[in-house]
Write a structure and sequence with these properties.
Number of strands: 10
CATH superfamily: P-loop containing nucleotide triphosphate hydrolases
Mean pLDDT: 92
Low-confidence stretches: none
Helix content: 25-40%
CATH topology: Rossmann fold
Shape: globular
Radius of gyration: 18 Å
Largest sheet: 6 strands, mixed
């Protein structure tokens, strides 16, 4: 699903060059439930953004489903995001004037799918995340956990092969965070969608099947949990 080779990313702040990523190498297989974990400033969000084609590396390569993203034009990267990648953010990023249904429908409108099919898919995924009764509520009429469920539904409605979640539990209390992680885990198993998190939350790491430890822009650890035989 994702292959990262010798990835470097430098940022210039004034006259100072800041290395955010320093030679990252990793492979994430189809269907993984993986956390990129590390303290603030470790480079985990930068890595997630480059995998998601929201940012470009200084050097190195990233392959998504065998495609070298470094060879793609801006439009081709946008099409890759539109068709294959779903995003979940810590701030939810819902459009406040739209209902849950309308927020979730946006990716399908961008894909220009059939309107009658859209309704079934939107209602279906909102049912999957437990919000069948909240179709017509706007974000300010929902709790933080409910808003994050809408964001997850929006990420999954187009049936992406990869979902990138940047600190998805950061604005949630521990009980709600656990419910969200259990929901993501269930959807991962049901649809075989690959989930990759960036996090410093131990709770996310507890749920992840694999933890890639990042510090100072380098991978310092990579552990897979043993699964029952």
């Amino acid at each position: 699903m994702v292959e990262v080779n010798e990835l470097h990313k430098d940022y210039r702040v004034g006259k100072v060059l800041f290395p955010a990523l320093r030679g990252v190498n990793t492979v994430i297989q189809d269907g993984e439930f993986t956390a990129i974990a590390g303290p603030s400033g470790s480079g985990k969000t930068t890595l997630l953004n480059i995998i998601g084609c929201l940012d470009s590396p200084t050097s190195g390569t990233v392959y998504i489903d065998g495609t070298d993203t470094g060879t793609l034009t801006t439009r081709e990267k946008a099409n890759l995001r539109k068709n294959q990648i779903g995003f979940v953010f810590q701030t939810f990023n819902l459009i406040p004037v739209l209902t849950a249904f309308e927020n979730v429908e946006i990716p399908l409108l961008l894909l220009d799918t059939k309107t009658d099919e859209n309704k079934d898919r939107v209602v279906g995924i909102l049912e999957e995340v437990g919000l069948a009764e909240y179709l017509h509520r706007k974000p300010n009429e929902m709790s933080g956990g409910q808003q994050q469920r809408v964001a997850i539904a929006r990420a999954l409605v187009k049936r992406p092969s990869l979902v990138l979640a940047d600190e998805p539990t950061a604005n949630l209390d521990s009980t709600t965070a656990r419910e969200i992680l259990e929901l993501m885990q269930e959807l991962n198993r049901k649809f075989h969608t690959t989930f990759v998190f960036s996090t410093h939350d131990q709770l996310v790491m507890d749920y992840a099947e694999r933890i890639i430890g990042l510090r100072d822009g380098m991978i310092v650890d990579d552990k897979r949990k043993e699964t029952p035989a």
